[in-house]
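User: My instructor asked us to take a sequence, write out its structure as tokens, and then describe one feature of it. I'm not sure where to start. Here is the sequence I was given:
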Amino acid sequence: MPRLLSVNVGLPRAVTWNGKTVRTSVWKSPVDGRRMVRKLDIDGDAQADLAGHGGEHRTVFVYQILTTTERREESNHAF
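Assistant: Let's start with the prediction itself. The structure tokens for your sequence are:
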């Protein structure tokens, strides 16, 4: 039976990439309790690049735990 392990949210940050400052929301952290999911966002979460991310058909993404574990190991980032 599938079960929800965590809800992760994050806000855009400015980072240096290839000598330029860019905004990204790749870093997400787990939250305690419930979060309201709306048509365009989840409380406490935002996307930096709305042209390629977000919108009413991309508000929530579901990943299998194996997928997130592999991504974390490959990139050395906490997603």
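For the description part of your assignment, you could build on this observation: The two ends are 24 Å apart (CA to CA). Try explaining in your own words what that tells you about the chain.
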